[in-house]
User: What shape does this take?
Amino acid sequence: MVIEKARELGIALSESMEFQRLNEARTAVDADGALSDMIDSFTNKRQEVMDALTDEDADPALLSAASREMERIQAILLENKLFQEMLDAQNDFQSLMSNVNKVIATCIGMENAGNEGGCGGSCSSCHGCKH
Assistant: This one.
C-alpha cells in the first residue's frame, strides 16, 4: 500500500504545473546549442576550480584565472532568459518538493506539528495523515 501511494505521489508530481514548467524549460535550454555549450563550459570550469582548490600544488595564478573565467561565464548565463527561466522553474519545483517532504515528515512525526501544510495535532478535521 505504501509503495502504491508513493507511485501515486510520483505521478501527481509529474503532472504538476511546476514539473511541467521545469521540463519545458530544460527542453528549451537543451535545444539551444550555444547555451548548452556555455553550461558545459561553466560546469567544466567549476570542476577545474574545485580540483585546484583541493590540490596543494595548484598554481594560485591559474586558480584565480579559472575562478574569474567561471564567474564571467556565470554572469553571461544569468543574463540569458532561457537559463533564468530554467533556474526559476527549478526553484519552484524544489519548493514544491520541500513542501511535500515537510508534510510527509510531519505526518510521520519527524517534524514539529506547527509547520505550514502539516498536521495541526487535531485529527477531528484531518483527512490525511491519520495521525
About this structure: The chain has a mean pLDDT of 89. The radius of gyration is 21 Å. The helical segments are 2-14, 17-31, 33-54, 60-79, 81-107. The chain is about 75% helix and 0% strand.
